[in-house]
Amino acid sequence: MEPDAWRREPWTWAAIVVSLLLWASAFAGIRAGLESYGPGQVALLRFATASAAFLVYATLTRMRAPDPRDLPRIALAGFLGITVYHVALNFGEMTVTAGAASLIISASPIITALLSAFLIRERLSALGWAGIVVSFLGVALISFGEGGHLEFEPGAALVFLAAIATSLYFVASKRPLRRYTALEFTAYAIWAGTVPMLVFAPGLVTQMAEATPAATWAVLYMGVFPGAVAYALWSYALARMPASVLSTFLYFQPVNATLIAWVWLGEVPATLALVGGVISLAGVAVVNTRGRSAARTRPSADRSATDG
User: Fold this and answer.
1) Least confident of 16-20, 84-88, 250-254
2) Which of 9, 39, 77, 118: disulfide with 90, CB 3.0–4.6 Å?
């Protein structure tokens, strides 16, 4: 595939849009789930549901098993992107304000770009880096506009750990996605990431007996749609475009959340938040139109970094 062929692929863009919308819907689901479940139990029930959905898919399609040589990398990706990210974020958001959490998580594209440059030789141009910084500043304005101030509680360290974990997941996923389809890799990663969460199983059994139906259905929804479906679509896009570029689309999430709250809940955003949203989207546009380095890595180097 040509280096920038993804720009002309409508299915890639559709995968990005749908995955972002599904992930945006998960914020309400998490709040509903935490009414009856602990943060660890929310993560376990969500991804146990996603694991079950992929098990059904794997059985019906007779999905191939992964090559044993790829298991360490797949397990690492699942542990980082599923276990660490979701458990750390759920526990962190118990004490960190929404604005502060949004700002910290928005460091993820910057971390991803740095890791991509060093580990898989993806290069951004100076304009690409400028676009990422502009988008980050836009998210900062949204965060300030929503709450007027930011309070970084001790849980902020857990949220930052989640940002690092998801960045590492994006980079670690590139090589397996050369060997496996998006559905195959996502199934393997979610299964691998769900296993460590079983430490929360005893509490989950107790909490399920006392949980409200609304809370349980919210978490089950997150397992199927923001979990299995959204991760599979994101893997599809990640297999076709640079991780450093794809991660910048995460800057749409604070904008999505602001618009959803405006339309659905009648929460009129502050002027500062609206300005921040425009700035954030402008930064994403710069990265995706002028963000790649003119001196692209030689194809042989790309293959050596992503194949094996």
Assistant:
1) 250-254
2) 39
> For the purposes of burial, counting CB atoms within 10 Å of the CB of 250, is it exposed (0-12), middle (13-18) or buried (19 or more)?
buried
Q: Which helix (H) or strand (E) holds 203?
A: helix 201-210
Q: List, in sequence order, every residue forming a beta bridge with 292; answer none if it has no partner.
A: 124
Cα distance between residue 273 and residue 210, in whole Å = 39
206 contacts 198 by C-beta, under 8 angstroms: no
Per-residue pLDDT tens digits for 143-157: 665 555 555 567 778
Say how far apart CA 18 and CA 237 lie, in whole Å: 11
Q: In total, how many domains does the chain have? A: 1
What's the distance, CA 215 to chain centroid? 22
In the three-class reduction of DSSP (H, G, I as helix; E, B as strand; rest coil), residue 66 is classed as: coil
Q: DSSP letters along 108-157, please?
A: HHHHHHHHHHHHS---B-HHHHHHHHHHHHHHHHHHHHHHSS----TTHH
292 SS3 class: strand
CB burial class (10 A; 0-12, 13-18, 19+) of residue 52?
A: middle
Q: For residue 70, what are the domain limits? A: 5-306
> At residue 298, does pLDDT exceed 50?
no
- pTM here is 0.82
Q: What is the rounded CA–CA span in Å between residue 41 and residue 242?
A: 33
User: Using CA atoms, how far apart are residues 96 and 156, in angstroms rounded to an integer?
Assistant: 6
Q: What backbone torsions phi and psi does residue 124 show, to the nearest 5 degrees? A: -100, 150
